[in-house]
Design a protein that fits this description.
Layout: H1 8-22, H2 31-37, H3 41-59, E1 69-71, E2 74-76, H4 83-93
Antiparallel strand pairs: 1-2
Helix pairs in contact: 1-3
């Protein structure tokens, strides 16, 4: 599920669409974004879906703050200062075997 072969312009457009989806703003790709970027909903939608999958794979189980948190069998109470959490996030972001 790699995004590395995509044009920078469609990645930027997809980041906007993905952020709109995250914030539950509908539609994710309205007419004014289509007119501004010249990307149709079908063109950008494919990349938004891949970007969304990468986001979910990397961050769906991470909670920031002083709350109990469980990820990969590790339980912490203060995730903001957890060095282990930071290492896992870095691996997920930095290509530690992941394509996202």
């Amino acid at each position: 599920m790699s995004l590395s072969g995509e044009l920078p312009s469609i990645l930027a457009a997809s980041a906007i669409g993905c952020a709109r989806r995250m914030m539950k703003i509908t539609p994710a790709w309205p007419d004014h974004l289509r007119d501004t970027t010249h990307y149709s909903p079908s063109e950008v939608g494919i990349v938004i879906e891949r970007m969304w999958a990468c986001y979910q794979a990397a961050f769906v189980n991470i909670v920031i703050g002083d709350v109990n948190h469980q990820e990969e069998g590790v339980v912490t109470t203060d995730t903001t200062s957890s060095p282990e959490l930071g290492r896992r996030v870095s691996k997920q972001r930095g290509g530690g075997g992941r394509e996202c």
